[in-house]
Specification:
Strand order of the largest sheet: 11-12-10-9-7-14
Number of strands: 14
Catalytic activity: ATP + protein L-histidine = ADP + protein N-phospho-L-histidine
CATH architecture of the largest domain: 2-Layer Sandwich
Membrane topology: Multi-pass membrane protein
Protein name: histidine kinase
Shape: rod-shaped
CATH superfamily of the largest domain: Histidine kinase-like ATPase, C-terminal domain
CATH class of the largest domain: Alpha Beta
EC number: 2.7.13.3
CATH topology of the largest domain: Heat Shock Protein 90
Order of helices and strands: HHEEHEEEHHHEHHEEHEEHHEEEE
InterPro entries: HAMP_dom (IPR003660), HATPase_C_sf (IPR036890), HATPase_dom (IPR003594), His_kinase_dom (IPR005467), HisK_dim/P_dom (IPR003661), HisK_dim/P_sf (IPR036097), Sensor_HK_Regulatory (IPR050736), Sig_transdc_His_kin-like_C (IPR004358)
Strand content: 15-25%
Number of helices: 11
Length: about 475
């Protein structure tokens, strides 16, 4: 007995489908065989009418229509038997279905049980005329016992073949079900271990079709979870270091200043360091809060009309001091028009601040960073931040926008900057692309829907040094 489960369902479904198919085929086959045999007998009896000469008188009817293995009866139009080729006496009028058919002018056929004996017989009847006016019914009656025995034998043989086919189908369906269920049971077992937190297990075996895809997907999921956990661990380690550094500076200078005995310059320096580290700490916390809001779809945008040129000019002014420390030149190429987009100005500025800040961070001293605005399509505008810095290898190019990912964790940061940037761009129905070549610089392209294009205004701040 097959236990409850998918195996039983598969076997049962296959078995029912094949059983119904075999039953239908056998019924059609047996009906066709029966029809073939009965029609053959009927045609043989009817051909005797066509091949027999009309008798000269009433007494010659039986002898004229005599036929081996068939009884010949001569009936009047009321069904009374007038002559019979056998000694069997019929004392009642014949009222079977072939009589009305013969009286209507066609050849009548009837299959049933012979009255008195209960034997299966076939009767074929036709009307004839003697001397052109006298009408009689000539009726052939033949036994169907031998034919029915042969049909019964054929039925038993076909039923036996059907049973054998069903047994084979049952065995094949069990094997097929096992070939499906065993991999699924294996997948369930491995999935259970994964659900308990063991992500080092993998589904082994090359399974075909959808089951193979399912196994590969689960293995990929486990790999991604392991990778995400590793990234999370690295992030926790990194953020702990990032938080500890400013806190250590704040604590150290606070304790130092509390002890007293410093001149105004030293006190000013200590307070400046405390202020700088506090801003750094606030930046880290805000970055994590932004990421949390984005992950929970809780970031609210204050949408309005934003001039891209003005946003980029403000961005350049905000990072000017940092660029000046490395003698990096910031160049704005605003194009031949003012481009207006529907956006949250502060969040859009956050995007470009992060991109330009990264460009400065990874660019060599005395290099140039370009900010380019150009129309991409009639309803699309592209902002490009291009540097000539260290670039990103192909291996890491697709991963740099992943959360917590850092090409070089030793350089500090949370690994959330580009992930947040990309999600803010997506909230504005835009796209962000990165093109980079190792040691030859990086270009970050932000595509946004264009609301309006205005004629260019005088450029007051094209370069910031």
């Amino acid at each position: 007995m097959i236990k409850k489960g998918m195996t039983r369902q598969i076997v049962l479904h296959y078995f029912i489908v094949v059983f119904l198919t075999i039953l239908l085929v056998e019924l059609v086959f047996l009906f066709a065989i029966r029809t073939y045999y009965y029609d053959g007998i009927s045609n043989y009896l009817q051909s005797s009418f066509d091949n027999t000469r009309a008798p000269a008188n009433y007494r010659d009817i039986v002898s004229s229509y005599s036929l081996d293995k068939a009884e010949v009866q001569v009936l009047d139009l009321k069904g009374n038997v007038l002559q019979n080729s056998t000694a069997f006496i019929v004392d009642k009028p014949v009222q079977t279905g072939d009589i009305p058919q013969a009286l209507s002018g066609s050849t009548g056929r009837w299959i049933g049980k012979q009255a008195g004996t209960g034997e299966d017989v076939m009767a074929v009847t036709r009307m004839i005329k003697i001397n052109g006016d006298k009408e009689y019914l000539v009726r052939y009656v033949t036994s169907l016992e031998l034919v029915n025995q042969k049909l019964f034998y054929i039925t038993m043989v076909s039923a036996g073949i059907g049973v054998i086919i069903l047994i084979v189908v049952l065995m094949v369906s069990i094997g097929l079900a096992n070939s499906i269920v065993k991999p699924i049971n294996n997948i369930i077992g491995v999935s259970t271990l994964m659900a308990k937190g063991d992500f080092n297990v993998r589904i082994k075996g090359n399974y075909p079709h959808e089951i193979g895809e399912l196994a590969a997907t689960l293995n990929y999921m486990a790999d991604e979870i392991v990778r995400s956990n590793q990234i999370k661990d690295d992030f926790i380690s990194s953020i702990s270091h990032e938080l500890r550094t400013p806190l250590t500076g704040i604590k150290g200078w606070s304790e130092t200043l509390v002890s007293g005995g410093f001149d105004p310059e030293e006190t000013k320096l200590g307070m400046s360091i405390i202020s700088k580290e506090t801003e750094r700490l606030i930046g880290l916390v805000e970055e994590m809060l932004d990421f949390s809001k984005l992950q929970q779809n809780q970031m609210k945008l204050v949408i309005g009309q934003v001039n891209l040129k003005e946003i980029l000019q403000e961005t350049m002014l905000n990072v000017w001091a940092k660029a000046e420390q490395k003698q990096i030149k910031l160049v704005l190429e605003p194009g031949d028009a003012s481009y207006i987009v529907q956006a949250d100005g502060n969040r859009l500025k956050q995007v470009f601040l992060n991109l330009v800040d990264n460009a400065i961070k990874f660019s060599p001293n005395e290099s140039t960073i370009k900010l380019v605005i150009k129309e991409l399509a009639p309803e699309r505008v592209r902002i490009v931040v291009k540097d000539s810095g260290i670039g990103i290898s192909t291996e890491f190019l697709e991963k740099v926008k992943d959360r917590f990912f850092q090409v070089n964790p030793n350089q500090g940061g949370t690994g959330l900057g580009l992930a947040i940037t990309q999600q803010i761009v997506q909230l504005h129905k835009g796209e962000m692309h990165i093109e980079s070549e190792l040691d030859h610089g990086t270009s970050v392209m932000v595509d946004l829907p264009l609301l309006e294009k205005k004629p260019a205004t005088p450029d007051l701040t094209k370069e910031a040094n």
